[in-house]
Amino acid sequence: QVQLVESGGGLVQPGGSLRLSCAPSGSDFSLKAVGWYRQAPGKQRELVATIGSGGSTNVADSVKGRFTISRDNANNTVYLQMSSLKPEETAVYYCNACRWSLRYARSCMYDYWGQGTQVTVSS
Fold it and tell me: What is d(CA 28, CA 102) in angstroms, rounded to the nearest whole number?
């Protein structure tokens, strides 16, 4: 089973920035399509951004212009750059990697997940 490791979360003031990373650990699995989700307490998990193996991206309307998803294939890592963060974006952020698909699809939710990284936006 592939383990994904997210990192880069933490406490940031409103309006601040963070960059999250997602990479496989302990295997030679090469990331294909990847999605970033977040889940705030008492709320459903929400898809924030996706990236295909070729670099095509999509971001949710709520974060458009503030969040950017990217990938570094040489280091087998996907990033989520977040800026102008708001308190209501406090959540656990998860990455989800597709086992086979080169384009992100909801069915990838049945594939690989990380343990999540906490992002807290507070003054």
Answer: 17
